[in-house]
Amino acid sequence: MNGITIILISAVVLIIGYLGYGRWLAKSWGVDFKALTPAVRMEDGKDFSPAQRFSVFAHQFSSICGAGPVTGTIVAMMFGWLPVLLWVLVGGIFFGAVHDFGALYASVKNNGKSLGQLIEKYIGKAGRHLFLAFSWLFCCIVIAAFVSMVAGTFATTAAADGSVDFAKSYAGGCAGTISILLTFSAIFFGWACRKWDLKGVAKFLFALVCIAVPFALGMVFPIYLNATGWIAVVTLYLILASAMPIQTLKTPRDFLTTIMMVAMIACAVLGIIALGINGQATITAPMVVSSETLDALAAKGNYLFPVLFVSVACGALSGFHSLVSSGTSSKQISNETHMLPVGYGAMVLESFVGVLAIVTAGIMFGDMNTAGTGALNAGTASTPFQIFAAGVARGMELMGFNATFATVFMTMNVSALALTSVDAVARIGRTSWQEFFYETNDAASSSAEQSGARKVFTNTAFSIAVTLVLGIALCFGGYLNIWPLFGASNQLLGGMTMITLAVFCKCTGRKGWMLYVPVAFLLVCTFTSLGMSIYGCWTAVVADQSFAVIATKGLQLVVAILIVVLGVIVAYNCLKELFTKKAGSIPDEEPEWSELGRKHVEESKHDVAVDAKTEVTA
After folding, report:
1. pTM higher than 0.90, yes or no?
2. Please, which residues have CB within 8 angstroms of residue 67's CB and are 6 or more apart in sequence?
């Protein structure tokens, strides 16, 4: 099949899903365009900060669209491209987008509470602490994996004599330098937008300048560091992203990054069209692999169910997204009408990125040396990211772009996918640690309100240090031993989010039946996957009790059992509340206010009154 056809059909399906199912969902639950959101009422200049609609969309999209839409989809194509495509489309519209929008919606309706705090309100305090502990450890593991991935992308390549191969290291060095410069550019961009109240076209054009300058400088003055050096640089960036007010660095950087990602998506689509014009856009990967191949995969433990559904997370459904929706995005929504494009829309766009990855890998499949190492004929190692980057770059060359520029552009965007997720994860990990120790369940709680040991444990600097120390320590060794459990853990997080949303809907008198099938499917899928992991690890340990096996399979076994116990406890309590709570028994929270929020709202009312009086006088 032609890749262009798949892209067109998928785009139409996703647009219909957003306009049809997404709007219906928002209408069913109720959106009040006159209501003052937590970002407005509880503004504190740190975490609660009202932003323009596209700015919040950019934050949501760049935070959730990490490595998953590319890595998961391409890896899962071992079953054929059709099953992956169907799960991305069906999962994205009816599972993932509902999950992301629901977490954002519930948080906004509850004064910006995070998912852990929502669990305490609707399920119980023990559930909150279990969930926050799981969330924090989950974030530390993701930090380790993504920092390692980014550092590896930027790191130098050694020549045969051990020296730096500058030709092979150029793209990574440029991308790393651009990333550093974009940090300072984003801070300046955010400051300028606030100072001069830039909006619309003026803001967009200024953003293009703030992207172009670092890009040009990075290509002329690349910095060459090994992996350890880049880990140190990325760690410093994560400290800044976790500590600084969200509107100072994170939100403006996400705005710039999203423009880059949209440009990448456009280049991917136009590149595939260019390939099609040249007769090179045919999908050569199998639509569905043969029964013999399925049997061979099953013999290695790779069953279609549940492996497909835990491998393809971002792009279809990812539990991590709920942490972004309820942890950071809900505190920036300035109007309830923005929740649909931010929560549902960002997920639909991420699903489209997953479709592009499927099509690109399907086209590149014919160029892969499957008889050998799986490397591309051009000599590029065939990791999912490199397949995607090489495929898009090939299309860009046909469009007339310089080959070096295309390679640097794609390397930069591929690393940005991971980098803008890991800075969100670091911030969420910090807040999860703090919320675990907060005495109250108030979203606006702060370290200053705590006493004794709680004051120390909830201190921002201490929380960042604890989170990053463990995350970076795992980066140097350890996370790979438990990474095989990440997919199931991530989808279990999604299942727990869906149950919490179902309880929220029932308690507040909203329709929640559309969540029941996703809840059942995710719980069966994740517990099946974890059960298979436990059986496989136990069998491996019994067969070989060497230190190497115990250190890997033994550790996976312990962690998998702990995750299952946690999941069962939280799922049981959630389901119990779902069946016993009376419909409409817990209304939405009464609006909370901060001094800064009240001040700005009063000033806004005063400005409106003055404008009205001026018009009457005139």
Report:
1. yes
2. 146, 149, 314, 385, 417, 418, 421
